[in-house]
Design goal:
The complex is a heterodimer of chains A (298) and B (519). Chain A has 298 residues and is mainly α. Chain A folds into two domains: 65 residues, no CATH class; 219 residues, MetI-like (MetI-like fold). Chain A is built from 15 helices and no strands. The radius of gyration of chain A is 26 Å and the shape is flat. The C terminus of chain A is likely disordered. Chain B has two domains: 171 residues, D-Maltodextrin-Binding Protein, domain 2; 235 residues, D-Maltodextrin-Binding Protein, domain 2, CATH 3.40.190. In chain B, 42% of the residues lie in helices and 12% in strands. In chain B, the strands form five sheets. Chain B has a five-stranded mixed beta sheet. Chain B is globular. The chains are: A mainly alpha (298), B alpha/beta (519). At the A-B interface, helix 3, helix 5, helix 7, helix 10 and helix 12 of A face helix 1, helix 3, helix 11, helix 12 and helix 16 of B.
């Protein structure tokens, strides 16, 4: 590029129209970004507000009157803490099991020379389209003596077919030569998986791990179905149950936390989402890359 | 290689350790399931002297305290009946789980599900639950509940379970207004529709909050299906669910003579600008919030236990405010009514797998009896409460906290959700704040309750009711906003409501009505 051309392009870049366009872009995109943050901010502010402060305005940018009453109520509840521990257990152990099984299965199925790999894959994909339904699953869990245990929230969903496909596709896309050179250096198949494939697959593995972790953290339905004892409830079930607006009970004068008001509800929401939100920054650098990977090649 | 093996070994060790320490469930042997009584406390006192286990799967009261091992109320029931009661509460009162458990063959001895659903009907049709008729003769409270209060629930003369319909014979909703606004505007609680309109107009245009701005509405509400009933009640609506035409056939309630004048009145209020224009977007919480914020001066309030809460919430922003409530406005002929009799509720049955159905029936009878009610509401006399010389109840909160009683003198976890709610029982602890006002609201609201023409909830109601409600809501909105005149709207509503499944609802309702009439 000549000096004249460079000057010319700089002139275009910094023209008034371009500046206005940039400013408009920034303002509009900034407003859109703010509008996505606002519901979270509103919830956070309301959770720290007194009922009076909450009622005094419909837009909550800052607590008019600070109150920790909602959090004090929540933290004073023993079941909350056992629920937290249960959720952490299900999320951590569940994700480890998920990843171990999904990675090993995906790696094996990525081997083109594995006899019957198409049949196995078809068997896995078949379950995505045709589910046995809740009643057979309930019966299996009951017969396996997993009712009323946290394992009922982990084992039945140990491998997600969707995540299996994502990882298998990613492994398929890895250069065969890398594995071959490792084998030539004396590495076994297991060694190739753990020393070569996993380290170079961090974006995909991190993404799938995050999917699994978030699913476990947010899972309440399997707890509703398979767990009875309150001390084994995960956090989501505890919070839903606490805030469950049972209109029938409410109207008939039954106990209902409906009457605790919006600050209490928002405190519960915050307590449910903040722990899992804290995980995101650690995965961020891999996550953006990972969501696109493995999804383009069948 | 070594590193890979170490990694695998580490993961395996972590999982094994976690399995051992964390969630072994019942295998650990150290925990007793919630709601299971301590067999050591169950001595038994039946004819046979044999203690039999009774497992009860119930939706119960979602907000109740957890029943711990050694709970003295459960122990007292066990001792009285010679049973070893084990109660399993379904999280969130989720009837779906109960249905799945039953469909999977995981039968308890006693099961509580939702009344009038295809699932519970399936229990009956498939022989999963047994008729109670054989046990009723010796169990007076069970007999009274079924043959006197719910005789219409029998199928071919057989009672397959104990229904509990909420808001069946009592109600608690009343038009709740700002008494301080009424006082400021020199108005009184309206007794007829004209006065109601006058009050709403004054609340909207006469600056009742004194801030000099036109920023208030007279009335706010939620989606219309089931609401604005007080208007139709004043125009002579007789039944909660349907109406009868001159030929004695069941027709949709909006084809009754009350609908056109009632809807015309509501539209007049709407056109006058006295109704919150966003009321269709409200849920109950939002509706209350607008009342508490002083945006609207009147709403339908679910009162009873909530009288004090509603007034104190209002006083958060307006310390001098108070609420007013009363009999709903009357029509020219003195007609009034606003609360619809319930059709939904719970259904408790004994399963075919129960090995001791006589004991299970005796337990249900006990829970329906005065003695049983006193036990689960008040507790054990001398332990959980004492009766003073003047007959008043003194609650021992310290002892109550040791068992599954709710705070503030409220009842035990077994008290509500299956056979009773406080409202239907007319129950409040004697030291409940605002007790007299709470009971007064129930009296007023129940007096304004409209009965059902057809007691049963038919399978067509279950299948098409929701879609038909949506059609009604849409036409209600269209008429209100002027898309159709009232007369046009009701004709289109009738046609579309039938097309959405209403014809099947009517067919089933007519059949049930005729069958009831014959009985």
């Amino acid at each position: 590029m000549t000096a004249h051309a460079t000057r010319h392009s700089n002139k275009i870049k910094t023209s008034l129209g371009s500046k206005i366009f940039d400013v408009c872009n920034i303002v509009i995109l900034g407003l859109i970004a703010l509008s996505t943050i606002y519901p979270f901010w509103d919830s956070l502010v309301v959770s720290f507000s007194s009922l009076k402060s909450y009622l005094s305005t419909n837009f909550h940018l800052w607590p008019g009157e600070w109150s920790l009453e909602a959090y004090a109520y929540m933290f004073g509840n023993e079941t909350l803490w056992s629920s937290y521990l249960n959720s952490i257990f299900v999320t951590v152990v569940g994700t480890i099991i998920n990843m171990l099984l999904t990675i090993m299965t995906a790696y094996v199925l990525s081997k083109k020379d594995l006899k019957g790999h198409r049949v196995i894959m078809f068997g896995a994909v078949f379950t995505m389209m045709f589910s046995g339904g809740i009643i057979p699953l309930y019966m299996v869990i009951k017969d396996l003596k997993m009712m009323n245990t946290l394992w009922s929230m982990i084992i039945p969903t140990a491998i997600s077919t969707y995540n299996l496909i994502v990882l298998r596709n990613f492994f398929n896309a890895l250069p065969q030569s890398v594995e071959e050179s490792a084998m030539m250096d004396g590495c076994t198949e297991v060694g190739v998986l753990f020393r070569i494939v996993i380290p170079i697959s961090k974006p995909a593995i991190t993404t799938v791990a995050l999917y699994y972790a978030v699913d476990h953290w947010n899972d309440f339905f399997s707890a509703v179905m398979y767990i009875n004892e309150q001390k084994k409830w995960p956090l989501q079930l505890f919070l839903r149950s606490m805030l469950f607006e049972n209109d029938m009970a409410y109207a008939s004068g039954g106990e209902s936390l409906y009457l605790l008001g919006q600050p209490m509800k928002m405190a519960a929401v915050m307590m449910a989402i903040i722990p899992i939100m804290c995980v995101y920054p650690f995965f961020q650098k891999h996550f953006a890359k990972g969501v696109m990977l493995g999804a383009v090649k069948g | 290689m070594t590193k890979a093996k170490r990694t695998l070994a580490l993961l395996t060790a972590m999982l094994t350790a976690a399995a051992l320490v964390s969630c072994g469930g019942n295998k650990t042997g150290s925990s007793t399931p919630a709601g299971t009584s301590d067999p050591a406390t169950s001595t038994g006192s039946t004819d046979s002297g044999k203690v039999v286990p009774i497992k009860w799967l119930t939706t119960g009261d979602t907000a109740a305290e957890v029943i711990e091992s050694g709970d003295r109320i459960v122990a007292a029931i066990n001792e009285k009946l010679g049973i070893d009661l084990s109660v399993t509460y379904v999280p969130e009162g989720n009837t779906e789980k109960v249905n799945v458990a039953m469909a999977s063959g995981d039968f308890p001895d006693i099961v509580t599900g939702a009344y009038g659903t295809s699932a519970t009907q399936g229990w009956i049709d498939n022989g999963m639950i047994i008729p109670l008729n054989d046990y009723m003769a010796n169990l007076p409270d069970l007999n009274k509940r079924l043959s006197e209060e719910y005789s219409w629930t029998a199928q071919d003369g057989q009672f397959y379970g104990v229904p509990f319909i909420t808001q069946y014979s009592s109600a608690n909703a009343l038009i709740t207004m700002r008494q301080d606004w009424l006082d400021k505007l020199n108005l009184t609680y309206p007794t007829n529709l004209q006065e109601f309109k006058d009050v709403m107009t004054a609340f909207t245009f006469n600056d009742p909050d004194g801030d000099g701005q036109n920023n208030t509405y007279g009335y706010t509400d939620v989606k219309p299906a089931g609401n604005f009933t007080f208007v139709f009640g004043a125009y002579g609506r007789e039944y909660a669910d349907f109406a009868l035409n001159d030929a004695g056939e069941v027709i949709p309630w909006f084809e009754d003579d009350c609908f056109v004048p009632g809807m015309t009145y509501i539209k007049d209020l709407w056109d006058s600008g006295v109704i919150d224009p966003e009321f269709m977007l409200n849920d109950n919480a939002k509706k209350e919030e607008k009342f508490f914020q002083g945006q609207a001066g009147a709403m339908i309030g679910a009162l009873y236990r909530h009288v004090t809460r509603i007034e104190s919430s209002l006083q958060q922003l307006f310390p001098e405010a108070s609420i007013a409530y009363g009999t709903p406005p009357k029509g020219e002929d003195g007609s009034y009514g606003m609360n619809l009799q319930g059709k939904s509720g719970m259904f408790t049955a004994i399963t075919a797998a129960c090995e001791n159905p006589d004991k299970a029936a005796a337990f249900i009878d006990f829970m329906l009896s005065e003695e049983g009610n006193n036990l689960v509401r008040l507790g054990i006399e001398g332990t959980h409460y004492t009766v003073a010389s003047d007959g008043s109840i003194e609650y021992n909160e310290e002892e109550r906290a040791k068992d599954a009683f709710s705070p503030n003198s409220w009842a035990h976890a077994l008290a509500w959700g299956t056979f009773y709610w406080p409202l239907e029982s007319g129950y409040l602890p004697e030291n409940e704040p605002g007790r007299d006002r709470a009971l007064e609201t129930v009296e007023l609201a129940s007096d304004a309750q409209l009965p059902n023409l057809v007691k049963q909830k038919t399978s067509a109601d279950i299948e098409y009711g929701s879609a038909c409600d949506d059609v009604y809501n849409q036409y209600f909105s269209d008429i209100l906003t002027g898309k159709y005149t009232v007369e046009e709207g009701v004709q289109k509503l009738s046609a579309d409501w039938r097309a959405a499944g209403g014809d099947k609802i009517l067919e089933a309702a007519n059949e049930a009505y005729k069958a009831n009439a014959q009985e």
